[in-house]
TrEMBL record:
Domain named Mechanosensitive ion channel MscS: residues: 109-159
Localization annotation: Cell inner membrane; Cell membrane
Source lineage: Bacteria, Pseudomonadati, Pseudomonadota, Gammaproteobacteria, Cellvibrionales
Main location: membrane
Protein name, UniProt field: Small-conductance mechanosensitive channel
Domain named Mechanosensitive ion channel MscS C-terminal: residues: 166-240
Length: 262
């Protein structure tokens, strides 16, 4: 059997080769990862271009590994001239096959880092295994959900869409100036910097009952701006409706009936 000294001597002899191979592989992967994130920020998820991008960058990752292995084999004295072309061809063919298979491959509707709502639990996905999904809620709790149970229920993924709708439902007195109230809500939403111009904000009267009218307002914002924008709009609406002379928020009404006894 080889002694420890012999093993260390062989490792030191190939030390430069190991280090250079690792540097090439890691450097290439980091560069591809940064480029992938840059391109991903410009492409909407779920589109054909998104699928092409994933396949292309996956193929580049595979090519980096193949090239690194070929360089190492060549440094060790192996003849890789014929194998290099075959390996690169296999990577390209594999990428083409994967491109057409992706729509048919099973996949989870969420990944680590997505903001989701699973079985009534809302938070960020921290880990996924075959047995459980770990969610970190916004108040700092760690919730462990059986993955099989999660897959059997409704799943809301708020990360996969680039835009999200902010909704406000307010109740005013039916005798108020409803047109002015609608205009005020539109002005509030349009003046908020995070609100998108397309689709445009809108306000509708959805019903009148017991002397009160319900106003339903909505606008669209970038996914990351949803919480902050909703908070800002609720505060602005409360201030605007409390200081206006033409319309105010309707207070809850309680009807009391009395019966006279004879």
């Amino acid at each position: 059997m080889e002694s420890t000294a012999d093993i260390l001597e062989k490792l030191s002899a190939y030390g430069e080769l190991i280090v250079s191979g690792l540097l090439i592989m890691l450097g290439g992967m980091v560069a591809i990862l940064l480029l992938y994130r840059l391109v991903a920020a410009l492409i909407k998820p779920g589109t054909l271009f998104s699928r092409i991008m994933k396949v292309v960058f996956g193929a580049i990752y595979a090519l980096i590994l193949v090239i690194t292995v070929m360089l190492a084999a060549e440094r060790l004295g192996y003849d890789v001239e014929g194998l290099a072309g075959i390996a690169i061809l296999l990577v390209i063919v594999g990428a083409i096959v994967v491109f057409f298979l992706i729509p048919f491959l099973p996949r989870l509707p969420y990944v680590v880092g997505d903001m989701v709502q699973l079985r009534g639990v809302m938070g960020s996905v921290e880990a996924i295994t075959a047995y459980q999904t770990v969610v970190r809620t916004f108040d700092g709790q760690t919730v462990y959900l059986p993955t099989a149970l999660v897959m059997a229920g409704a799943i809301n993924n708020f990360t996969q869409v680039p835009q999200r709708r902010v909704e406000l439902t307010l109740t005013v007195n039916a005798s108020d100036d409803l047109g002015a109230a609608k205009t005020q809500l539109l002005t509030l939403m349009s003046s908020e910097s995070a609100v998108l111009a397309e689709p445009p904000p809108a306000v509708f009267v959805t019903g009148i009952e017991d002397g009160r009218a319900t106003l339903f307002a909505f606008c669209w914002v970038a996914n990351a701006d949803w919480f902050a924008t909703r908070d800002a709009l609720w505060i602005a609406a409360a201030e605007a409706f409390s200081t206006s002379d033409g319309f105010t928020l309707a207070a809850p009404q309680v009807s009391v009936k009395t019966e006279s006894s004879t």
